[in-house]
Design goal:
By secondary structure, the protein is mainly beta. The chain has helices at residues 41-44, 106-110; strands at residues 4-17, 21-29, 33-39, 48-54, 60-66, 80-81, 91-97, 100-104, 147-150, 153-165, 170-174, 184-189.
Length: 190
């Protein structure tokens, strides 16, 4: 069965396990999601479920998840989905928007080494170096240069569910989740 939910990244913490010791986990608050829309192949050309999550101000965030035609029977309009659909030790994929880091140079953005500190190099330790050639006399597309970094959609796969609190609607994932605290993320089975 397809399992997916929308949640909000709360932050990181450490829990202690008798066998594994200390585990660094990311907490995601997944308040009950409501099925807002069901798409089918006859009408829309594909099968999908649109989940909605209302915040405290009443604004609804909707995300669409693709499903198989056999799984469409498991969903109906208005059905609520909570954290109880997931189980401990399941692997999930988490999608979200990464932290925005602003305008960055090539050393931070692409991991360039930089120039040596001696032998005629002065004030160009973090410079990108040559960016073109004699022909075709212009900078080629895709050249790694300075620019805006972060703020992209990113998916982290195979994060293990190690903690579930049904009363507080919390899921604990072993590892790092993309984005800053209070940003919306989507969880689905890997």
């Amino acid at each position: 069965m397809a399992k997916f939910i929308i949640g909000k990244k709360v932050g990181m913490t450490t829990i202690y396990d008798d066998t594994k010791g200390a585990l660094n986990i990311t907490l995601v608050e997944c308040l009950p999601n409501k099925v807002e829309l069901i798409r089918n192949e006859e009408k829309d050309g594909y099968n999908a479920v649109c989940l909605g999550l209302a915040n405290k101000k009443g604004k609804v965030t909707c995300k669409e998840f693709r499903i198989n035609s056999e799984e469409a029977a498991n969903f109906e309009l208005g059905k609520e989905i909570g954290v109880d659909i997931f189980e401990i030790d399941e692997k999930v994929a988490v999608s979200g928007v990464t932290k925005g880091r602003g305008y960055q140079g090539v050393v931070k953005r692409h991991g360039f080494k930089g120039s040596p500190a001696s032998h005629g190099h002065r004030h160009d330790h973090r410079a990108p170096g040559s960016i073109g050639c004699a022909f075709p006399e212009h900078v080629l597309k895709g050249k790694k240069m300075a620019g805006r970094m972060g703020g992209n959609n990113f998916t982290v796969k195979n994060l293990k569910v190690v903690y579930i609190d049904k009363e507080k609607s919390l899921i604990g994932l072993k590892g790092a989740v993309p984005g800053v605290v209070n940003r919306m993320v989507q969880l689905s089975l890997s």
